[in-house]
Amino acid sequence: MKIKHRWQKIAIGITGGILVILILLTIGGFFFLKPLVTSRIRKGVEKASNHLYSISFSDITYNPSMGQVFISDVKFTPDTLVYRRLHALKKAPNDLLTISVPAIRLTGVFPLSVIFSKTLNLSNIVVQKPAITLRHNNFDYNADKQSAERKTPYQFISKYLTSLSINKVSLNDVNLTYENYETKTPKKSVVEHLNIDIADVLIDSLAHKSGERIYYAHDYTFTLKETTLPDKNQLADNLLKDVVFSLKKRTLTVKEYHLKPRFDEMSFAKASGGRDRTEVQFKNIIMKDIHPDKLFPEIKLYANNLSLDSGYVKVFNDKRYPRKVRNKVGEYPHQLLKKLGLKINIDTVSISNVKVTYSEYDPEAKLTGFISFDHIKGRVLHATNDSLPLLKNPVCYADFHTYFMNKGSLDVHFIFNTTSEKGDFICKGQLGYFEGTSINNITIALTKVGVESLQVNKYVFNMKGNDNYVTGTGILYYENLKANILKVDKTPDEEAPKRRFRLFKKRPVPTFLVNNLVLKDSNPSKKNKLRTGTIKYTRVPTKSFFGTLWGGLSQSLFQCVTGTVKD
Question: Fewer CB within 10 A of the end CB, N or C, for the chain?
Fold first, then answer.
């Protein structure tokens, strides 16, 4: 090809010049840049950390045509002897880091901008599978230090750059270990397979003053696709799916939380030594207005709102095996909240469309009876176990609306005194109209009593209690109560499927005596006399909170339907 025009000569000259520069930069990158950069990075880390940290890596390569840097086998480690010396001088930092990274890729690295303008604008930094251990110890001498004493990131780079910007930093598949030495017994937390994305990083003389940035970035997003944590008894797993935390938005979302037992309903009691099988699933959990300053480094979860819009709680008891008995004093909901290892302070917890079911399997009848609370909706106010918020307000309030057996409307209000040593609480509520035959699901299987007819107009109750007792009143307004005393039909015949309760036979004499001598037909009576149930229940130490509530409520119900007091 003949060169006829001047513009062709200029174009070829420029192109040739660029190629020569790229070749020279490539040669420099492979043969000269590596030792220069390696030496500067190592010396820079040692100087910036007062020789507390050292950095090493097996290889660093630079591709100038693509503006890419690859770094392999990076290790960022502290010198424990230097750390102890700094601590003796009261100059040690609160946090100590150990980092190991198999590979780091930087794109958009063009040295000319550094040479001519002392700026470095990177496109992306991708860090693959970093293992990070953070050891935290809140030293008193650091609390008195003025912020001016602590160097900003800009002060570290100002000798070489006037500004550093990064479009995106991605830390993929992070294994993070957090060790907290603030308490006598160190606490260790491990998070695996965490992804961290940092958007629009800018470090210059003014970035730390910008109200639109958080720690020099537009946002930090933490993502866990899925993780499984075993419970302490190794009988169930805590499964979390699609966990996303945005530092900018101060919002945490969890698509699903599932406490999943490792054994099915008919195998769990045998495997666990007689424990109840509990399965929990909540979906669409959203926590808003989280306080990042409390979350780290204090590891306290402060938030304005927590909501979940669907889920269930299933408790199953297998009566083929003796129930595991243990002392449950001190395990009311507010007492467990107070004992929680993580300090929390949440203004409002909102719940909607949750179902709670309790079931028991009777081996004699080979039948499972259940009781359910459907479409639970409610909120909890001032859910906290941290000392300062409790000093201001020691009371936690909870209001719930649900449907008993998916029939009767039920409203319940709780007042918990979280600071009470004895677990003081108040519980009051009202159950609306429902047909009593709907409770046959539980009464037949567990008590061999069937409700022939019953119209519940309402049940109003008011209780207060603590670790030792529950007192109060309960009034059941009802009409047309008739019951059948049953026994298991062990010799079924052709007529069995046609019977009212199928697998059971009616016991005529006990049924007649109960309906005519024990049970009252209605409340108020036909003479308009109202029977009020009195609650004076002594708490059984092996009973749970809800078992204790039921013990008190059953006293009032028994008195309303029989006219006699039940111990």
Answer: N
Distance (Å, rounded) from C-alpha 50 to C-alpha 52?
Answer: 5
Query: In whole angstroms, what is the distance from residue 515 CA to residue 386 CA?
Result: 54
Concatenating the DSSP letter of every residue in 381-423 gives EEEE--HHHHHH--EEEEEEEEEETTTEEEEEEEEEETT-TT-
Cβ neighbors of 72 (< 8 A, separation 6 or more) are 57, 58, 59, 60, 102, 103
As beta bridge partners, residue 536 has 471
Residues of the chain with pLDDT below 70 are 1-37, 114-115, 144-151, 296-297, 490-502, 566-567
Burial 457-468 (b: 16+ CB within 10 A, else e): eebebbbbbbbe
> Tokens representing 213?
């940035």
Angle at the Cα of 172 from the Cα atoms of 135 and 260, rounded to 5 degrees: 80
8 A C-beta contact, residue 60 and residue 39? no
CB atoms within 10 A of CB 516: 9
Q: Cα–Cα distance between 2 and 73 in angstroms, integer?
A: 52
Distance separating alpha carbons of residues 383 and 331, to the nearest angstrom: 16
Residue 498 DSSP symbol: G
Counted residue by residue, the chain has a size of: 567
Rounded CA-CA distance 310/4 in Å is 77
Cα–Cα distance, 214 to 2 (Å, whole number): 59
Phi-psi region of 66 (alpha: psi -120 to 50; beta: other; left: phi over 0): alpha
Question: Which pLDDT score, from 0 to 100, does residue 14 have?
Answer: 58
**What count of other Cβ atoms lies within 10 Å of the Cβ of residue 255?**
14
Q: How would DSSP label each residue in 117-144?
A: HSEEEEEEEEEES-EEEEEE---HHHHT
Q: How far apart are CA 421 and CA 23, in angstroms?
A: 77
Can you tell me the distance from the alpha carbon of 338 to that of 352, in angstroms, rounded to the nearest whole number?
Answer: 24
234 close to 227: Cβ distance less than 8 angstroms = no
Q: What is the pLDDT of residues 109-162, one digit of tens each?
A: 877 776 677 887 889 989 999 999 988 888 888 776 655 556 677 777 777 778
Does residue 153 have a cis peptide bond before it, meaning omega lies within 30 degrees of 0?
no
What kind and span of H or E run contains 14?
helix 6-27
Tokens 């007649």 map to which residue? 512
Q: Where are the beta strands (DSSP E) in 79-186?
A: 95-107, 119-128, 131-136, 163-180
Distance CA 18, CA 38 (A): 27
Place of tokens 């046959």: 440
Beta-strand ranges (E) seen in 495-565 are 504-506, 533-538
Per residue in 497-542, pLDDT (tens digit) is 444 455 788 899 999 999 999 999 999 998 889 999 999 999 999 9
CB 552 within 8 A of CB 537: yes
Q: Which pLDDT score, from 0 to 100, does residue 1 have?
A: 47
- CA atoms lying within 13 Å on the CB side of residue 91: 9
Displacement of CA 423 from its chain's centroid (Å): 24
Contact predicate 479/436, CB 8 Å: no
